[in-house]
Amino acid sequence: MANRQHSAPSTRASPRGAGAITNVAGIEVGHFTDARRPTGCTVVMARDGAVAGVDVRGAAPGTRETDLLSPVNLVDTVHAIMLAGGSAWGLEAATGAVQWLEQQGVGLDVHVARLPLVPAAVLFDLLVGDATIRPDAAAGYAACAAASTRRPAEGNVGAGAGATVGKVFGIEGAMKCGIGTASLRVGGFTIGALIACNALGDVVDPDTAQVIAGARTTPKGKVLLDTRRALARGKLPKPLLPGTNTTIGVIATDATLTKVQATKLAQMAHDGLARSINPVHTMLDGDTLFALATGRSGAAGTGPGMMVLGALAAEVTARAVVRAALAARGLQQGTQFFPSAADL
After folding, report:
1. DSSP character for 238?
2. Which stretches does DSSP call E strand in the chain?
3. N or C, which end of the chain is more exposed by having fewer CB within 10 Å?
4. Measured distance CA(196)–CA(164) in Å, rounded
């Protein structure tokens, strides 16, 4: 584990009232950030188990155990979700989470052992630094060991360490993004989101429709291009490999949900990505959102309750994307500098 680091929780750059996914009872978060290059992984843990769902909207996803979460399949409870950089190699981080949770006696009782269930999703951050350095099982294990109920760090940490946005017209004009979190408490339940944003498109403030971070007019400039408007004017994108982007995240609530409802919650949360990222869900993104329901509040997720919960899932998702951009810090990689929203 030489040259590696855990990321301590922090409130830096976190506005009062922003909330965090760890405000949801039964949820812990841990980051592992690799100091050798900007990459890492983030675990969202529910040691007592949580009903889970998933929705994949991007066309180039990298995932593990998502079939398990289909409403027609048997198991409805998982024990953690792993988010990681490193593209498909980063899925190995989930193996470390399984190892750590088993050592804690956490998992599905299969009579001969307890089997931790840890679905995972990855984003592509290999264009930033040495691509041979990726999160592995040791990284996932370390993220679990660092997990707590405290507010998680945001920005250039964990799965967001190597995240960039605004790559439609080339990586040289991109900006640094990261990981962000937000939560709301309404009607007796809490709902929160944790999002690692590595989108092809721009991050947009849904309240003002202004671009916060994204493609710039020149590689060394600090003027935002506005990808949506540039495409509408006829500016042509540069060729990129599929899957070299991707926004991944977890929405969690203390409401009581069925597996079908958790799946619908993940689906509705994608509306928050659509409000805060443009373009989103492209052929070059693997956008994937998980939903967890710990049931700690006792509030039912049926009828109007589920409608409100889904609407708020989209809201906290959008807020977490904005946090991911605002909390990020500029990154120098060789001769390439990726400025952040703070630099502009």
Report:
1. P
2. 4-6, 28-34, 39-56, 63-64, 77-84, 108-109, 114-115, 120-122, 164-165, 175-176, 179-186, 189-197, 202-204, 211-213, 247-253, 277-278, 288-293, 331-333, 336-338
3. N
4. 10
Q: Give me the domain span that covers residue 114.
A: 4-343
The closest of 100, 85, 81 to 33, measured between CA atoms, is 85
- Which amino acid would we find at residue 74? L
- The CA distance from 176 to 216, in Å, is 12
Report how far apart, in Å, the C-alpha atoms of 283 and of each of 56, 201, 287 are.
12, 12, 10
| CA distance linking residue 149 with residue 27, whole number of Å | 7
What tokens appear for 107 in the block? Answer: 């998992």
Q: How many domains does the chain have?
A: 1
**Pair type for strands 247-253 and 288-293:** parallel
Burial class (CB in 10 A: 0-12, 13-18, 19+), 131: middle
- Facing residues of 109 across strands? 114
DSSP three-state, residue 268:
helix
Residue linked to tokens 């708020």:
312
Which of left, alpha, beta for 141 (phi over 0: left; psi -120 to 50: alpha)?
A: alpha
Report pLDDT digits (tens) over 292-316.
999 998 655 444 588 999 999 999 9
Give me the pLDDT at residue 241, please. 75
What is the phi/psi pair of residue 4, to 5°? -120, 160
Residue 111 maps to which CATH number?
A: 3.60.70.12
103 φ/ψ angles, rounded to the nearest 5 degrees: -65, -25
Digit-coded pLDDT (tens) for 24-76: 999 999 999 999 999 999 999 999 999 999 999 999 999 999 999 999 999 99
At 18, the pLDDT band (50, 70, 90 cuts) reads confident
DSSP code, position 173: G
> In this structure, what are the phi and psi dihedrals at residue 157, rounded to the nearest 5 degrees?
-135, 160
Cβ atoms within 10 Å, residue 344: 15
